[in-house]
Design goal:
By secondary structure, the chain is mostly helical. It has helices at about 1-40, 40-55, 70-80, 90-110, 115-130, 135-145, 165-170. The chain contains 7 helices and no strands.
Length: about 180
C-alpha cells in the first residue's frame, strides 16, 4: 500500500510540476509584453522628466515659484487619465506627450509673473529640444557663451525675440 501511495503522490507531483512549468512560460511571455509596453511609454516619462526639472528650476528665477514633486506627480497622473484615449499605441503616445506638455505649460503660466513667461517658454522649448537632441552640445554652448567671432560690424536684423517664437516651437497658444 505504501508503494501505491508513493506512486500516486509522484504522479500528482508530476502533474503539479507540469502545470507550474506551463504557468512559468505564460508568466515569462507576459513579462516580455509588460516590458515592451513599459518601454513604449518611456517617451512620455522623458517628457514628464524634462517638464518637471524646468518647473523645479523656476525657484531659481523667483522664490515664489515653488512646485513640489507631489504637485507635479498628481498633475501628471491626472493628465494621463484625462487625455484623449486612442487604441493605436503610437497615436496614444503622441496624444499623451502633447497633452502633458500643453497642460503643464498653461497651468504653470497662470502662476507666473508676466515678466517670467517668456523665460519659462524658452526653458521649456530649449529643454525639450535639448532632450530630443534637436540642439546639440556645441549649439547650446554657443548660445550660452556666444561666439569668439566679432559680429559688431554686421547689421542686426532681429530687434527682439517674442514669446510667440517659443510658443510656435512648442506648438502652444499664448499664456493667459
Amino acid at each position: 500500500m505504501n508503494d501505491e501511495e508513493l506512486i500516486i503522490t509522484l504522479d500528482q507531483s508530476k502533474l503539479t510540476s507540469d502545470f507550474i512549468s506551463e504557468r512559468m512560460v505564460v508568466a515569462e511571455e507576459t513579462a516580455k509584453v509588460i516590458d515592451a509596453t513599459r518601454e513604449s511609454y518611456r517617451r512620455v516619462a522623458r517628457r514628464g522628466s524634462v517638464l518637471y526639472f524646468v518647473i523645479a528650476d523656476l525657484a531659481n528665477v523667483d522664490p515664489m515659484y515653488q512646485y513640489s514633486l507631489e504637485f507635479f506627480t498628481k498633475s501628471f497622473v491626472m493628465r494621463l487619465e484625462k487625455s484623449t484615449k486612442n487604441p493605436v499605441l503610437e497615436k496614444r503616445l503622441q496624444i499623451l506627450v502633447e497633452d502633458v506638455t500643453k497642460s503643464f505649460y498653461f497651468s504653470i503660466c497662470r502662476g507666473l509673473f508676466e515678466k517670467d513667461k517668456l523665460l519659462y517658454s524658452f526653458l521649456n522649448a530649449s529643454s525639450i529640444m535639448r532632450r530630443n537632441r534637436d540642439i546639440g552640445g556645441d549649439e547650446w554652448n554657443f548660445f550660452l557663451r556666444g561666439s569668439p567671432t566679432d559680429f559688431s560690424a554686421q547689421e542686426n536684423l532681429i530687434d527682439f525675440i517674442t514669446n510667440d517664437m517659443w510658443i510656435t516651437l512648442l506648438g502652444l497658444e499664448e499664456c493667459h
